Amino acid sequence: MIIQRKNGLQAVLVLAQGVLITLVFVLCALATFNFFTGINWGMMLHYPIYVFAITAGLFLESFRRDQAGMELSPFEGGFPRQHQLSLRQTFYAIGTLFVYLVLTKDAMISRIFLGLCLPMFYLTLLLSNRYLSRRLAERLFGGLRKGRVLLIGPISKAVILKDWLHSKEIFGIETVGILNDSPVEPGNPSLYPYLGTVDSAERVISERSVSQVILLELPEQADRYRKLISELESQGVRLLILNNLEEKLHHPVWYMEDDGHHFIGLRKEPLENPLNRISKRILDLVLALPVALFILPPVAVIVWAIQQFNSPGPLILRQLRAGLQNNQFEILKFRTMHVNNPSVTQQATKNDRRIYRGGHFLRRFSIDELPQFWNVLQGEMSLVGPRPHLIEHNAQFAKVIANFPIRMVVKPGITGLAQVRGFRGEALTTEAIRQRLESDIEYLESWRLTLDIMIIARTAVQMFIPPKTAY
After folding, report:
1. How many Cα atoms are found within 13 Å in the side-chain-facing hemisphere of 55?
2. Cβ neighbours of residue 104 under 8 Å, at least 6 residues apart?
3. What is the band of 66 on the pLDDT scale with cuts at 50, 70, 90?
4. 3-state secondary structure of 269
5. Residues 150, 201: contact at Cβ < 8 Å?
6. Averaging pLDDT over each range in 191-200, 263-272, 303-312, which range is the top one?
7. Residue 471 in contact with residue 294, Cβ under 8 Å?
8. N or C: which end of the chain has fewer CB within 10 A?
9. Is 384:456 a contact under the CB 8 Å cutoff?
10. Mean pLDDT of 322-342
11. What is the residue-wise DSSP string for 159-184?
12. Could you give the CA distance from residue 22 to residue 2 in angstroms, rounded to a whole number?
C-alpha cells in the first residue's frame, strides 16, 4: 500500500508539473514576443515542438529516477532534496530541448526566451515539489483513504522504524499502536500506544479501524502467524512484513525472481553481465594498448639503467599471483629488489633493505606496476579490480578473515577501490586487511563503468601525489 501510494503520488505530481511547465512556457513565449522580439509567425510554429520536448524531458527524468532506484523524492528529505530534484528536472527538461535543437539544426528558438525560461522552470518545479506535492497528498489520501497502521512485534524494531513511519505520514499513514507479547516496562515507554498481545490482533483491528498491519520481524512461529494472516484477510486488512533476514544472517542480502522462482543471494555481481564485462574489456584495451606501446618501452630503458647502476639483474620480476576464481597467473613488474632475495613472500616495508637504491622511487610512484599493462592486454588482469596477492599472502589473509577469497570472483586489477582510498602497502593488522576487503567487495557489488573511470583518474593523480602508505 505505502509503495503504491508513493509511486502514484509521484506520477500525479509529474503530470501536474507537465501542465505547469507548459503554462510557464506559454507565458515566457508571450513575454518574449511582446516585449523583446516581436511576433514572428514562422518562429512561433516551432514552439509547440519545443514545449513537447521539454515535457518529454520531464517525464524522462521521472522514468530514469525510478529505474535507477534513486532516493530523490519531493515528499521526503526537506528543502535540500527538493532543490536537488528541481535542478535535476530542469536539466533533463532543457537538456532534451537542446538535444532536439542540435539533431534538427533548429536555430529558430530565441535566446532571450531560453534565458527567461530557465529560471522560471526551476522556480516552478521547486515550488511544486515543495508545496503542490503536499496539497495533492492531502486531497488523495484524506478521509476514507487515510491508512491506519498497527505494528506487531518487538518494541526495539518499532524504534528502528520511527523515522520511516514519520516520513510516510504524507501518504496518509497513521500509526495507531503496537502489539507485543512482552508488555512495555514502566521505565521503558513505547513510542506508540501498547494495545495488547498478538492474540488480541482481531479485536484491536476492529476497534481501531486498522487498514494495514506491519509485522516488525519475520515470523518465528509459522502456524501462529498463518492464523493471523487468515484473520487479516478475512477483515480486508493489508499485511507488510519488515524483513530482518540480514540481521539473522549477519550479512546483507539481495533478492531476485526468475521463471517464477524467488531467490535470496548475499550480493549483486554486475560483472556477471556479459555486456558489462565487454564494456570493461573495451576500456581496458583502449587505455592499456597505447601505454604498452608508447610509454612502457622508454620507461623500461630508464628503469634498466637504474638497475644496472644499483642492482644488476633481470629487468622484469615474474611472480605467481592469485587471479580470477583463484586461478594462478604470472604477474609482470619492474624488479625493485636485489637479485637472489631469500624473503620473496615477505611484505615490503617502508625502509626495506631488500629494495635497491632507486627502487623505493619506482614503488612509491607505482612505476614498477607498468609492465602489468601487458597482463591486461593478455586478459589476465584488468585496469581496475582487487589487487592480486601472492599465493602465500592470500592463504594468510584468508585465515584472518574467512570471506577474503570472495574478492577473487572478479578479475584482478592494476589499481582498485582499496588502493585509491589509501589502503595499500604493508597489511599487518586484521583491520588493515578488513578495510581492503570491504573496498573490494563494495567494488564487485556496485561496479559500473563510471566507477572504473573514477578509480583510474584518482590513480593517475596518486602517481604524482602518492599517499603516505605508498612505499
Report:
1. 19
2. none
3. low
4. coil
5. yes
6. 303-312
7. no
8. N
9. yes
10. 87
11. HHHHHHHHHGGGGTEEEEEEE-SSPP
12. 30
Q: Where does residue 151 rank: exposed (0-12), middle (13-18), buried (19+ CB within 10 A)?
A: buried
Rg from Cα positions in the chain: 31
Specify whether the CB–CB gap between 21 and 121 falls below 8 A: yes
User: Could you give the 3-state DSSP secondary structure of residue 264?
Assistant: strand
Q: What is the DSSP letter of 37?
A: I
Which residues are paired to 332 by β-bridges? Answer: 318
Q: What is the pLDDT of residue 245?
A: 83
Q: Which CATH number fits domain 145-259: 1.25.10.10, 3.40.50.720, 1.20.58.340, 3.40.50.12780?
A: 3.40.50.720
- Give per-residue pLDDT as tens, 372-399: 999 999 999 999 999 998 888 777 777 7
Domain ranges of the chain: 2-140, 145-259, 272-464
Cα of 342 vs its chain's centroid, Å: 45
| Alpha helices (H) in 33-132, listed in sequence order | 41-44, 47-68, 78-104, 111-127
Cell 522556480 -> residue: 123
- Contact between 324 and 277 under an 8 Å Cβ cutoff? The reply is no
251-255, 317-321, 349-353, 430-434: range with lowest mean pLDDT: 349-353
